[in-house]
Amino acid sequence: MFSGVPPTRPREVELQVDDALLGDDRADAEGAADEQIEIMRLIASGAEVLKAKSFEQLTDDERRRADRLIRQLAVSLPVRRSRRLHRTSRGSHFDLRRTLRSSLRTQGEPLQRAWLSRRDVARPLVLVLDVSGSMAPYARALMQFGYAAMSSGEKVEVFCFGTRLTRVTRSLRTTDPDRALADVARRVRDWEGGTRIGESLKTLTDLYSQAAALKGAVVVLCSDGLERGDPLLLASQMSRIHRIAHELVWVNPLKGTTDYEPLARGMAAALPHVDRFLSGHNVKSLEELCDSLASVTR
Question: What residue numbers bound the domain in which 97 lies?
Answer without folding.
Answer: 81-121
